[in-house]
Amino acid sequence: MAMKIRLARGGSKKRPFYRIVAADSRMPRDGRFIEKLGTYNPLLPKDSEERVKMDMERVQHWLSQGAQPTDRVARMLEAAGVREKAERNNPNKGTPGKKAQERAEEKAAKAAEAAEAAADAE
């Protein structure tokens, strides 16, 4: 059975609240889970101790059983010091989109034309 440690959403509309759960990866996000491992309340300030609460003993147990944390839960575990920080690199995130690149090319072409016209005038 492929196990995941992931977030299950609760709370009302525009007021999210998440349970950190150990669940079979084939189950739906908010569906059946095996064990509740903690809670995450994104509405609280980042420095609040109540924002993320986890039963570390049970999290360690599930990790030793081969459960894979999702990216968001893995970041929480890194912040808690349970996992070592993973190297993340997304070189495409910083690159501008297609339209922005086209605008930059147009701007560069206009600047080149203006410089050429200034050189011809002299």
Automatic annotation (TrEMBL):
Alphabetically sorted, this entry's keywords are: Ribonucleoprotein, Ribosomal protein
Q: Where is this region: Disordered?
A: 80-122
Question: So what family is this one in?
Answer: Belongs to the bacterial ribosomal protein bS16 family.
GO CC terms in record: cytoplasm; small ribosomal subunit
Biased-composition ranges, Low complexity, are 111-122
Q: Which organism is it from?
A: Phaeobacter italicus
- Single GO biological process annotation from the record: translation
Composition-biased stretches (Basic and acidic residues): 81-90, 99-110
Q: Which domain of life is it from?
A: Bacteria
Which protein are we looking at?
Small ribosomal subunit protein bS16
GO terms for MF: structural constituent of ribosome
Q: Which InterPro entries match?
A: Ribosomal_bS16, Ribosomal_bS16_dom_sf
